[in-house]
Predict the structure.
Amino acid sequence: MMPRKKLLTLESMNQSVRGVVVPILGSLSVRAVEIQREIEEGIHKPFGKITACHLGDNQSMGQRPVTFLRQVAVLCTYPDLLDSPHFPEDAKRRARALMKELDGGSVGSYNLFMYIGKTLPHKIANFIKRRDGGVPCDPRNIIVSSGASQAIVSVLSLVVNNEEALKTGIMVSVPHYTVYVDAIALCEAVKVQYKLEEENGWSVNVTNIRTSLHEARKHCHPKVLCVINPGNPTGHVLSREIMEEVIHLASEENLLLFADEVYQENVFGPGAAFHSFKKVLFEMGPRYSERVQLVSFNSISKGISAECGLRSAYIEFVNIDPSVFEILHSLKSFNEPPVLGALMMDVMLDPPQPGDQSYETYIAEKRDLLNNLAEKAHLTEEILNSAPGFRCNPIHGALYAFPSIQIPETAVRLAQDRGLEPDVFFCHLLLEDTGILLSAGSSFGQVETYHFRLSLLPPIEELKCILEKITEFHGRFMAEYS
Amino acid sequence: MMPRKKLLTLESMNQSVRGVVVPILGSLSVRAVEIQREIEEGIHKPFGKITACHLGDNQSMGQRPVTFLRQVAVLCTYPDLLDSPHFPEDAKRRARALMKELDGGSVGSYNLFMYIGKTLPHKIANFIKRRDGGVPCDPRNIIVSSGASQAIVSVLSLVVNNEEALKTGIMVSVPHYTVYVDAIALCEAVKVQYKLEEENGWSVNVTNIRTSLHEARKHCHPKVLCVINPGNPTGHVLSREIMEEVIHLASEENLLLFADEVYQENVFGPGAAFHSFKKVLFEMGPRYSERVQLVSFNSISKGISAECGLRSAYIEFVNIDPSVFEILHSLKSFNEPPVLGALMMDVMLDPPQPGDQSYETYIAEKRDLLNNLAEKAHLTEEILNSAPGFRCNPIHGALYAFPSIQIPETAVRLAQDRGLEPDVFFCHLLLEDTGILLSAGSSFGQVETYHFRLSLLPPIEELKCILEKITEFHGRFMAEYS
């Protein structure tokens, strides 16, 4: 036999897939895993364990799941428990009702039709209508997805058309949630960035969008404007006025508006309120509501449920011909959502109501979660803004602080010599010294000034300690490199 | 405002995505959903309900889940139950051990690292090693995926390189599991078909592969040879000799061997035994085992667990540089497997052992499942082969019968006039008359002769009744169109 070239190698493989880099396995995370292994192997470190604050992963940081949700989950998974006195009657009622909709009554069936013609899209539509003060919602415009990241890549893969003369442009904010850029790379689209206004609490500025758009039109066909509200990584909650400006711009410039609203329940800033783009669009009248193409989505990985492991989200399409997005059902043959995740989305969109046995517990859990986030946001702003070299905008929503940090010129040059972004360099030093794992601002596309994203999810005492370690370390870092 | 073209329409959207058609929403399934709705609306039909026999969806057809698996699942989901006397100690022990590996001890965390460096790939590798009689398995070569369909599209998306002069060819059998063809379309590869030998129980014939291969090389670069064993839709279990021939051919012709082994536990034919391609490859010696690139996969949607709703599978890569398939971790940022699914894979690969409290129950469940399938396979062969106009090969594995059916010329022409494949035409008439939903053979690429795929999953009495209705209907069909 002749020696032959192997078929699947880095050189021969799909080069567009090869180009996709994932943030969760960035150099910081990889090093954190190594350090944790070193600790377990007995290698001495100045800290006892890795403190991961880089993700919005609530339950990994000790947040307890919503009791009612988990009760319904286990009753559906193991129906023998329907006879157990351990569970409240309303959870049993809900489980029985859900199981009636399952093929063979089982969460172990594919239940493909649950996502299509049957009850789940109707229930999601009812939730949206209630949320939006009665604005109509057609269940036929709802698609269930296995998580928000999947929703992003699915929708973009519908829009990006590489058969056209100009490549499709996708507009994303800077800073942005990293998955957008990965999805754009995967779809072979052109990333068109617009800057958020750090000096204005990270709000959207439509003038910035327009400038980027006109520049981009010289070399691509921008089709989609992505807006994340509440903001990730920024924690900003958009005002209604700005949302109207965004919709007006989308209409005027003929952009499909892609609204990432997964943090819609995580709003806790004084005076901040979440408005959905769908609601604002419809309240602006038919001139907008009948023309602007809007795709918005929501997930049970965030909000009150915070069930990241269940993998469930939904997408609503407005002013888009169903024959377009129904193709997502086809793509879903590669990626059916887990049944339990879909059921739990149903539960979270229609939680216990006043008078229900589980209502008091549910409301207390929800209130504690939001109060807790508000308290931690306030604490974070206070500690960071009173330390030299940090500036933290008010955090009104989502799960993160995204402060700017001062990095002295010597450190910037040193980082560049090592081929690192300066904020990545800082985060690496912090990780080695304290075990604290942050996400560097540059991984969210923020490169002209230096930032990190810190999750607000650790328990408050731990968060305080983390913040103090970060500011203390930064002081030493400044002293060393100034 | 000027009227503008909408951005996302059938005409402007991604045309390669638009081309993907999904079998589960084929015309037969769509019509079945309509009929069910009509029945619910009170419209009279000659039957009371749709009898869906087109899918390998065990629990939708009344199969009970594996008790131990579900016990561990609910203990992990709702740890308060660890105090309940309802659950056996070994299930509790297993749940505690699994929870220790979860971030924050919760199935609600992302648990991203569970899939990468940590224990799950090690446990899968141990299972493979045990299964293959000690052939080594490196956990670094294992990737966890959210289902086998996802595995298929992920791996093909790694291989297909559209930057090369010749398009990438993917070889699939006829008949084949439909998802392959969808995945090939999605990846914009070239489908290269090779015929299975119906006259030889649907076995693989390497001469057929070679003929197709040489023909295909005139217009594309065939890189991957997909083999499904046990066969879907055929129910054939490959002999060791044929597997050696396939491996020899893959080596000689430089093809990456892609072995779909999701039905590896569903083997029940007299004398039939499952051998993994990995094992056979290694037993053929280093001349093969060090050279042939092999990708194989397995899923908990099939086998003894049959948990289609949990969405969990794994892929093993042999002779492939990890830097290639580690990119799947990146793609996974769009598609993390559900945590509970991954945990349950762990449980199924390492079920209760002799001496464990749950062993007897588990073994009885497993035995019943396989005996039941064997009995139903035998019954199906008997009924179909004694009816005129049917021929059914022996069914030794998987979950289906794939008999040939006679369709008279008049019916063939009538079908063609309506733009339907003749077997789709037959299945439509059967559906309208009896409510029985089958998959037409042509949806598996089998077009020169006429077939259908029937699931063996209905309870035996119901299956008998279904088979009698099919043969009785076919008699009337022949009378009408001959």
Remarks:
- The CA atoms of residues 230 and 237 of chain A lie 5 Å apart.
- The mean pLDDT of chain A is 93.
- DSSP finds 18 helices and 14 strands in chain A.
- Chain A touches chain B through 107 residues (CB under 8 Å).
